[in-house]
Amino acid sequence: MVHAGGRQDLGGGxxxxxIAASDGTSARKVTEYSMATYGGVSWTPDGKALVYAALSGxxxxxxAIPAAGGTPQQLTHDxxxxxxxxxxxxxxxxxxxxxxxxxxxxxxxxP
Length: 111
Prior knowledge:
The chain is an all-beta fold. The chain has a single domain (about 5-100), classed as Neuraminidase (6 Propeller). About 0% of the residues lie in helices and about 50% in strands. The protein has no helices and nine strands. The model is unreliable at about 1-5 (pLDDT under 50).
């Protein structure tokens, strides 16, 4: 049976990650989490876990959770926002978007 991962907006910045059979039956909630923007979700190649982006310390970070449910494991602890995960076909790497904001003050001599 092929399963699909889906996300539900619960309002107030809370979201839920769901798994359902490809025909829409057997839907079950895997986890709830906070996020500021759609951060994406990706299956591991063996179908045993999902990698998704959620808020941690005010920034989007990557988490993994077993498809059967359980406690999410935080994978990144970055100073920027990390989102849009894609697990590699080998299951050994994750590609993601990293967004960091940098402010600089420049000093230039007057002519």
